[in-house]
Design a protein that fits this description.
With 165 residues, this protein is mainly alpha-helical. It has one domain. The protein has 9 helices and 2 strands. A two-stranded parallel ribbon has the order 1-2. Its main location: Golgi.
């Protein structure tokens, strides 16, 4: 898009015509991750001040969607997949396969640009960790989390998410 703007300019600062022109001139890629895995990652990185995962989840639920941090806010409210037609949606856990395809479609050399991914190990680790941490939550917290992330869970194929059960 030809219009000059600073890197920190937000899409909402453009009018509808400019936004449509800009979005039409880019390849749009959305990276998505299971909401529970995002919460676990945030907790494990110490981004919450709670002593346990259960109390961290309660803090998230108490904050509500409007006051939620970007690190755990539902993706649908951050990325607007109903308004923006993304060219690619890349799922965490399939990065090597999907990024390879994306680079190939862009005409870039795949092998020389991709770092070594350990998707299978990461998926197994997050699956095990998710089960352990999910078991710490009360039934009410599990239901509230499923409701909190209901639009993400319906917009993206998180079929193995514990929140969909």
């Amino acid at each position: 898009y030809r219009r000059q703007h600073a890197p920190e300019t937000q899409l909402s600062e453009f009018n509808l015509t400019e936004t449509e022109a800009m979005l039409g001139s880019y390849t749009k890629v959305l990276f998505v991750r299971d909401p529970l895995q995002r919460l676990i990652s945030t907790f494990m990185q110490g981004m919450g001040s709670s002593p346990s995962f259960s109390s961290f989840v309660q803090d998230v639920l108490d904050s509500g969607q409007h006051n939620a941090s970007v690190t755990w806010k539902p993706l649908v409210s951050l990325c607007r997949p109903c308004l923006i037609q993304y060219d690619y949606v890349v799922m965490f856990g399939f990065l090597r396969q999907e990024l390879g395809h994306l680079l190939q479609r862009a005409g870039l050399p795949v092998d020389s640009l991709l770092p070594e991914f350990t998707d299978t190990q990461v998926q197994w680790t997050y699956s095990w960790l998710s089960e352990q941490m999910f078991s710490e939550l009360s039934l009410q917290q599990k239901q509230q989390l499923s409701h909190f992330y209901r639009w993400d869970l319906s917009a993206f194929p998180f079929s193995s998410s514990l929140l969909t059960g």
